[in-house]
């Protein structure tokens, strides 16, 4: 009988242990869920409220400064003869706005083949507001984080050196046709030009690759990954640090300009020398004939 009681007691204790564990787990889940329900919705609501206020501010700035060319809803404007006056901004994303307005290209004084870089007309807060409004019109590339474009965020110097090597290969393959192998830029068809990127902010270089402004191709993450874009920026930043050894670099535009200068200057000197020899020979012959008489 005693053995039976002991067996029943052990069985009862074994049954209570799983029940106690389940009860503790249930209490923990309820506590975590309650805390999340109390805190998360409030912060999410505040974030949505702040974003709505930012979009409203951006819309006000957009209506005053951009709607004349791009339309009141960013739909773009076409003139009566069918000529595009201002392109649609639906789907261009916040990154396009940050690049165009942040580099001073927009607002544009007047339409033309080339949009010139100038000092920005708006503060960064105003640019962020307009970018938020344009982003609300349709999905598009967002403004990159510093981790995506800043070479200084690499973990070690070895990683940075490897990125410069990779970025150089990508740059020489995809970018030199327009921006030159030195990044100094060059002429483009129909009155355009590829600007120098040696003084361009790394964030704007990333955004340009992502959005493809004007004649530039769009390099989506499927074409060039975010890591490769950062590597290209690392290479461009390394070119800024290359020393200038002096002499005439002819704008650092490569062998074409060097050959042109050699052809014009060298051939010009030879032609001038030939004329000098011919003129000197003529005078000498005339002097000899005069002496003979």
From TrEMBL:
<feature type="domain" description="Cytochrome c">
    <location>
        <begin position="53"/>
        <end position="138"/>
    </location>
</feature>
<keyword id="KW-0408">Iron</keyword>
<keyword id="KW-0813">Transport</keyword>
<dbReference type="InterPro" id="IPR050597">
    <property type="entry name" value="Cytochrome_c_Oxidase_Subunit"/>
</dbReference>
<dbReference type="Pfam" id="PF13442">
    <property type="entry name" value="Cytochrome_CBB3"/>
</dbReference>
<keyword id="KW-0249">Electron transport</keyword>
<keyword id="KW-1133">Transmembrane helix</keyword>
<feature type="binding site" description="covalent">
    <location>
        <position position="69"/>
    </location>
    <ligand>
        <name>heme c 1</name>
    </ligand>
</feature>
<dbReference type="InterPro" id="IPR009056">
    <property type="entry name" value="Cyt_c-like_dom"/>
</dbReference>
<keyword id="KW-1003">Cell membrane</keyword>
<feature type="binding site" description="covalent">
    <location>
        <position position="178"/>
    </location>
    <ligand>
        <name>heme c 2</name>
    </ligand>
</feature>
<dbReference type="GO" id="GO:0008121">
    <property type="term" value="F:quinol-cytochrome-c reductase activity"/>
</dbReference>
<feature type="domain" description="Cytochrome c">
    <location>
        <begin position="162"/>
        <end position="240"/>
    </location>
</feature>
<feature type="binding site" description="covalent">
    <location>
        <position position="175"/>
    </location>
    <ligand>
        <name>heme c 2</name>
    </ligand>
</feature>
<keyword id="KW-1278">Translocase</keyword>
<keyword id="KW-0679">Respiratory chain</keyword>
<keyword id="KW-0732">Signal</keyword>
<keyword id="KW-0479">Metal-binding</keyword>
<keyword id="KW-0472">Membrane</keyword>
<feature type="binding site" description="axial binding residue">
    <location>
        <position position="179"/>
    </location>
    <ligand>
        <name>heme c 2</name>
    </ligand>
</feature>
<feature type="transmembrane region" description="Helical">
    <location>
        <begin position="260"/>
        <end position="279"/>
    </location>
</feature>
<protein>
    <recommendedName>
        <fullName>Cytochrome bc1 complex cytochrome c subunit</fullName>
        <ecNumber>7.1.1.8</ecNumber>
    </recommendedName>
</protein>
<comment type="subunit">
    <text>The cytochrome bc1 complex is composed of a cytochrome b (QcrB), the Rieske iron-sulfur protein (QcrA) and a diheme cytochrome c (QcrC) subunit.</text>
</comment>
<dbReference type="InterPro" id="IPR036909">
    <property type="entry name" value="Cyt_c-like_dom_sf"/>
</dbReference>
<keyword id="KW-0677">Repeat</keyword>
<feature type="binding site" description="axial binding residue">
    <location>
        <position position="70"/>
    </location>
    <ligand>
        <name>heme c 1</name>
    </ligand>
</feature>
<keyword id="KW-0349">Heme</keyword>
<dbReference type="Pfam" id="PF00034">
    <property type="entry name" value="Cytochrom_C"/>
</dbReference>
<feature type="signal peptide">
    <location>
        <begin position="1"/>
        <end position="37"/>
    </location>
</feature>
<dbReference type="GO" id="GO:0005886">
    <property type="term" value="C:plasma membrane"/>
</dbReference>
<dbReference type="InterPro" id="IPR009152">
    <property type="entry name" value="bc1_cytC-su"/>
</dbReference>
<dbReference type="GO" id="GO:0020037">
    <property type="term" value="F:heme binding"/>
</dbReference>
<dbReference type="GO" id="GO:0005506">
    <property type="term" value="F:iron ion binding"/>
</dbReference>
<keyword id="KW-0812">Transmembrane</keyword>
<feature type="binding site" description="covalent">
    <location>
        <position position="66"/>
    </location>
    <ligand>
        <name>heme c 1</name>
    </ligand>
</feature>
